[in-house]
TrEMBL record:
Keywords: Methyltransferase, S-adenosyl-L-methionine, Transferase. InterPro entries: DNA_methylase_N6_adenine_CS (IPR002052), N5-glutamine_MTase (IPR050320), SAM-dependent_MTases_sf (IPR029063), Small_mtfrase_dom (IPR007848). PANTHER family: HEMK METHYLTRANSFERASE (PTHR18895), MTRF1L RELEASE FACTOR GLUTAMINE METHYLTRANSFERASE (PTHR18895:SF74). The keyword rRNA-binding does not apply. It comes from the Bacteria. It comes from Undibacterium parvum. This is Class I SAM-dependent methyltransferase.
Length: 384
């Protein structure tokens, strides 16, 4: 039985009204809501949004977008006086937590601009774009669920539209000589260095491999192209499995890959097990961030603790992991080694590569010091 969806309630024309509230990040509907249109100034909107008042838009859609941009500029503007007084963070961990706190606050304020949707995903506003296809991809109906009008934040809608464009265009992956098309809520493999490591590492065999946390299916596709006869790819997110299914089919390797909805391992053993867990031990603030943030290193520790029970005696487990958490002070190298040893594993090889993404050279990034030192590694592990 589906849970009752939350409602956004407001007063309009002296009448109490309500609509279904939708938030992919799990944000609760604002308790205070004010009707807003083209007459509202950016300063007035900013004050209300900072106070947690939702602004239900009734004006021109394109003006709502401009208002959102104006709010972002006000958030990002740093007063010179306060900037001079602000002390540099004492540690990488402090810099990270301050950065995440600022990101969270920024997201909360920008999420206060609200857009109404009809049941068929049309937006009943002037100059509103056609977002029906993008929304139907991001918000599929559950079995037995009936489409109803709803309200969501404009910021979320823009993310849905952006994801739709990424899905259409795809991401070129040199190692597989093809494109991966990420779905909404499934992390895009834009950082190709870890894929290059998997493409170059010597295979321990070609009969069977487990791909743990497959996501878009990019590593399963690569292993299939490298000659692995059968791959069992797991994920606990139905969106990811649907995404992987389409990508594997497009790349012509679907017959080699079995997709399974489960947490971590399938039943049985394999001579090769691959896992690229989230790299940063922190709490995600939205579903898509689960590919980046792993609270208390749950997936990493679960993989290392359980892989021995699923690995063939002479097999190899490949752990693909960045050391960014170590440079941020969120995890130590000693902790990682202790988890490897506690799992009954030994390191028989390690391949390293430095990331090439633009943030490594962006000195204005609050986390630049850690990013400049980051190394991504493929750890080749065997049973002790």
């Amino acid at each position: 039985m589906n849970p009752t969806p939350p409602l956004l309630c407001w007063l309009e024309n002296d009448t109490q009204q309500s609509l279904r509230w939708h938030s992919e990040s799990g944000m609760a509907p604002p308790k205070r809501v004010q009707i807003a249109d083209d007459r509202m100034t950016a300063d007035a909107a900013y004050k209300l949004a900072c106070e947690g008042t939702g602004l239900l838009w009734r004006g021109d859609f394109q003006n709502a977008r401009q208002l959102l941009q104006a709010l972002a500029r006000r958030i990002d503007k740093k007063p010179e006086k306060s900037a001079k007084k602000t002390k540099a963070p004492a540690s990488g961990a402090e810099a990270f937590h301050l950065h995440r706190q600022a990101q969270s606050q920024r997201a909360r304020v920008l999420a206060m601009v609200l857009i109404p949707f009809d049941a068929d995903f049309k937006i009943p506003l002037r100059r509103a774009p056609d977002v029906q296809q993008a929304c139907s991809e991001a918000y599929p109906l559950a079995a037995g669920e009936t489409a109803t009008p709803f309200v969501a934040s404009l910021r979320e809608l823009l993310g849905v539209v952006g994801a739709h464009e990424w899905r259409k265009k795809g991401v070129e992956i040199t190692a597989i000589a093809g494109r991966i098309h990420p779905h909404y809520g499934v992390f895009s493999p834009v950082r190709g260095e870890y894929i290059d490591l998997v493409a170059k590492a010597p295979l321990p065999g070609n009969e069977l491999a487990f791909d743990i946390g497959t996501g878009t299916g990019v590593l399963a596709a690569l292993l299939a192209q490298r000659g692995i006869k059968k791959i069992i790819a797991t994920d606990q997110d139905p969106r990811a499995l649907q995404c992987a299914r389409e990508n594997l089919s497009n790349l012509g390797v679907a017959q080699q890959v079995e997709l399974l909805e489960t947490d971590l391992f399938p039943e049985g053993r394999a001579p090769m097990i691959v896992c690229n867990p989230p790299w940063i031990p922190a709490r995600p603030s939205s579903p898509i961030e689960y590919a980046v943030y792993d609270p208390d290193s749950r997936m990493l520790r679960g993989f290392l603790a359980g892989v021995a029970a699923h690995l063939e005696p002479q097999g190899e487990a490949w752990l693909i992991l960045s050391d960014i958490a170590e440079h941020l002070g969120l995890r130590t190298s000693a902790e990682l080694w202790s988890w490897i040893e506690a799992g009954g594993l030994q390191v028989v090889g390690k391949m390293d590569i430095r990331p090439q993404h633009p943030k490594t050279a962006d000195t204005s990034d609050p986390l630049h010091a850690a990013r400049a030192l980051e190394v991504t590694s493929l750890w080749r592990l065997k049973l002790v």
